[in-house]
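WARN retry 2 of 3 for item q-0093 after timeout on previous attempt; input resubmitted unchanged.
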Amino acid sequence: MEIKLPDIGEGVHEGEIVRWLVKEGDAIKVDQPLIEIMTDKATLEIPSPHAGTVKKVYGKEGDVIKVGQPVVSLSEEGASAGASKSAPSTVPMRASYAGAAGQAAQAPGQTYAASPGNVLATPATRRLARDMGVDLGQVPASGPAGRVTKEDLQRFIGASAAGPQVPAPHGMRRREPMPAQAKTPAAPKPSPLKPSPLMPGQRETLIPFRGIRKKIAEGMTKSRGTIPEFTYVDECDVTELVQFRAAAKGVAEKEGVKLTYLPFIVKAVIKGLKEFPYMNSQLDEQNGNVVLKNYYNIGIAVDTEQGLIVPVVKDADKKSILEIARDVQVLAEKARAGKLALEDMKDGTFTITNAGTIGGMLATPIINWPEVAILGVHKISKRPVVKTINGRDEIVPADVLWLSVAIDHRVVDGAMGARFLNVVMEQISNLKLMFLDAIRL
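OK item q-0093 returned
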């Protein structure tokens, strides 16, 4: 029988083979990952809906395959004796994608065979429950025909973002994995940023231009080739922010959160976007509309070994500083582990890129198309500044941050971009204003 590349959804029609996780002759179980596929949205593991023996794999790493084309062919002879007898003979392939923390898509009207205990759930949801030690039989279901969804699971544990590191709530039974379920650690992924050591006499090294690096190139080329952008730059005294964050780090650590400057900047950006809604928009040239987004999904550029990836903090305006910090932390960890799901990367309305932890005074970021603006956050430096103290100008040390905002000049004029950045700077230089807005909400 042939296993085909499933309909991944989100307008994805093809994917590039990143890595094979099985080889011909392997006996595999239901839900065992077969292959890593990279789309223009995310890198996904495709699990098998059947148990059997791999007869043939189609394609090699770097090849592009389309939705509906075969990935592997299986022989049911020699299937693993440990495969679940209750597993369905066919699993809707739309529900059979995603990594360890993936979001499974669902086709309208489809139902899924029950697991032991009569619990209906997709393979991705089952895998996530196993990683978290959650008994799916305890989770109230909201999906079609009583199916437990990933959102049901997240609501059950009371977390906005789920992952293997989230402890089971008090009173929840944690199930230790059986030896047969133990996974062999995957070999480290090759990184285009760290090529293999040179051989004696080797004068050049060839790195295949594919994978995430190629997708980044396509996105940057589309942005620069489409958007007439300009960049506006200013500096901001963030002494108060530096002091407050230093005092609050311990409180955040008790909540299991690493508190950086970024959540404060996200909040300040949202204030600016609300005052200047064109900064939170998209140009729909085909229909002749500027689409103002009345929600605030903030993309956070993450530096990984495979390249720059932009997961999205959803509905950031409805979250506290610590909640944003937790989301950023979880998304960054998933990005660096290659475990982001499609849901983690879609529907962004504005992007923040932070090169300040690396260094440098200033950079001009490239807009994350189809958004119309991006904020560059740079290094905080201790510098002498002039301040008026008791009616006298005095030179005092201050923590100074440079910010740059790149804007699509088709939609936003320079004056609006400058005023937007003024609001952002006002918020992060005077935290009382930020907290006052929070109280008003």
